[in-house]
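Progress against Task 2.4 (sequence-to-structure conversion) is shown through the following example record, which the project officer requested during the mid-term review.
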Amino acid sequence: MSRSQPAEHSLEPIGLPVWWAQQRSRTPDHVAIISDGVEWTYQELDQSARVFAERLMDAGVGRGDHVGLCVDRSAEAIAAMLGVMQTGAAFVPLDPELPSDRLSFMIADASIEFIIGHSHYQPQFRKHAVSWLDCDKSIRHQSTANLVNEPPRLQPEDVAYVMYTSGSTGKPKGVQIPHSALAAYCDADIECYQLTEKDRTLQFSTLCFDIAIEEIFPPLLTGGCIVIRPRARAEHANELSAIIEQFEVTAVHLATAYWHSWVDLMVATRDRVPKCIRLMIATGEKVSVEHYRRWQSVCDHSVLWCNAYGPTETTVTATVYIPDEAFNAAQMPIGKPLKHYTAYILDDQLRPVQGNATGQLVIGGAGLAKGYLNRPELTESAFVETSIDGEIQRIYLTGDLARWLPDGNLDFAGRVDHQIKLGSYRIEPGEIEAVIDRAHDVLGSLVVHDEVDGDKFLMAYVACGKATLSAGGLRESLRDSLPRYMIPNRYIFIESFPKTINGKIDRAALPSPNQCVVAHDGDATMPRDDLERRLVDLWQDVLNVPEIGIHEDFFLLGGSSLLVTRLVAKLTTEMKIELPVRDFFANPTVATLAGHLRRLLGQTETHPIASDTRRLRERLPLVETGFFPSDLHQLYFVHYRPRNDARGQAVVLCHPMGHEYARSYRNLQQLAVQLSQLGFDVLRFDFAGSGNSEGDCGEFTADRMTKNIIDAHGYLLRRTQASHVFAVGLRLGATALASLPRPVFEQCVLWDPVYCGKSMLRRFDRFHRRQLRGLTRFNKVRRASAIDQSYGHLMTTEKRQSLSALELRELDRSFPLVLTDGAFASIEEQHWLDRQPTVHRVADTIDWEDERYTESAFSSPQSYRVIASLLQRESSK
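Structure tokens generated for the chain above:
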């Protein structure tokens, strides 16, 4: 039995750029996009898209090329998508959070030579031979008067975009969506969801998933408005509802897991579905009927609610189910094919099944992908031509099981293979297994998912013989090769896999998921009172973890923002308390969250900080302070001595200067503690004339810095008798390390070094002037004093000349560099960086150039991990 939805009319294969141009001509002054409070008209969006297209064509980009997009949700990003398509090229979304080797594969696989991106992502692509075009706000105001290139005439088979998904061979696969498929999908989407120019659609999804295609292109082809999810977090406990109401959003598309969590949060906070919503689409995975019932209980008006289904290979959505008022099924169907699509249930021989039997769901019609980029064998196995109902048709084998219901809707029944759908992600377990199998002592692996109350968790069975493996250690080893959502947090270690009679893994004979080991980060401390016990129970229920300590981080245990909203919903219901989601992010352990809840409830703190930190203190180093001599001055130091497992090796930490010294004090302190816990003796000291050290700040020169560093090395060596002494320098401290006149340390790690002292001083001066602007004391405006100062440092002519001359030149040794997000952004810095052999990019955001952050500490967990790993590697040589 088969079902199909025949097209009412054939689409003219004009391609989306022509269709877009027609709509822009009809509604040039309509608001196309609202982004962070700024409105873009259709005319302005089109103008920006044409600027992108002209720049790309000037650079030689044309039909058949692939242009990478590494962008945040923004109006500029949408203009870039349109601009790329106007050249005849295809855009390829690149997720900056992916591991570098995965990005490298995608760039090479798609032969990407040009990337459009937001400037803060550019450093991640330095090592690639690609050209970069900034996707910044100025694009909106650039003129198109001089545009002379004529866009190429598109053909239906030309590719509009390439979307990468997980691949079973260990490599991602690029799905090629042609213009004909995108046009067919948009036409079907507009009709099914009844889109009009009065709609405001929320652009909520990241641009690396095809839900974003649904949120962007159909609305723009009807004269509607796209509201881009604001970057700033809302204060309201129900953040999504607040955004929808603030911008009067009428159409919302959400991954099913997000929709489930939002419904739970509305129930918990006694919120109602915002009155402005007329269209709600859940998509991506199986919808819980119980959550649909909850939705009905909090919705007071008529909403077109839809359950959408469709693999990336069928261009976003292929079938849609719209329940009627009489709906009472135990499972939510996935509906009927959209216009321009067909759907069939076939057996193993690709013949239609009889009656309502279960078989493989296959999709046909105009919305199919062209195939997989550079994967002809895979394309031939997934996209086949076969005779159905006496007609040769090209179909896509979804790998999903389904059956026809008596009313003509499709009922989803799981996967033919073992592919896992986790949130908005389709994951091939083989890709994860290929990485796990490379780990030391691993004999083989099998990745599956466990499910509790509708939430899925990745779990890995790992065969390791007689070896002893750590779940935390194995998880840590996967971080460099897999994105976070593909890293299992639960492991079951076995000697070998049970096998069936034909040699395959006997899945039925594997240990129960209840025997899993969770990747904990330390010993579990049990709850001490009823509140902590209740929080532990909630966490164990939500995370599906058998044992949780009160000091363990929710997110390191596998928690996500989706699960946070579920926890907040339960806490709000039980405790009748207003708890913004952001408060949970600030208190991610049971102990800290319990204390925060008590404060909100006006209760007395049950457990003093001292008792809470007793376990942590046992791991803290022994700390001694004092002074050591250097160049006729006494320099203040803090020595962190490891309590246990001392390596007999030491590290000197070299501070920045000026306000950067104050800003980084806490971070270097934390780094010292972590290195000491790894067994290093650590010496943190203040340069002469800074901090607690003796000396005249005005006499602080580059020569004095290097002399201080050399003396710190000698003092630590005498104090500890260490076999090796390493150094870590931050900002100017790193630059001073790199300029030492002779080799002093076994190795130096340069963390965000200052490239040019003159530029640094100019920035300090600029910060200093801005700090004085508009400030008053005793009703008088503060003015710059006669003393030359540069935001935190007394300056003299000699000092300025000395620091201005300090810069990074060709390094005599191969010093590893650790660079945070946005560091080394100028062209000169990039050229220098390209010549360095060892560069480690981290996602920590420090923003040295942003005056808003000059007084605040920064978050640097990835920097800590990389620095610790580098020093451990050096110490083991």
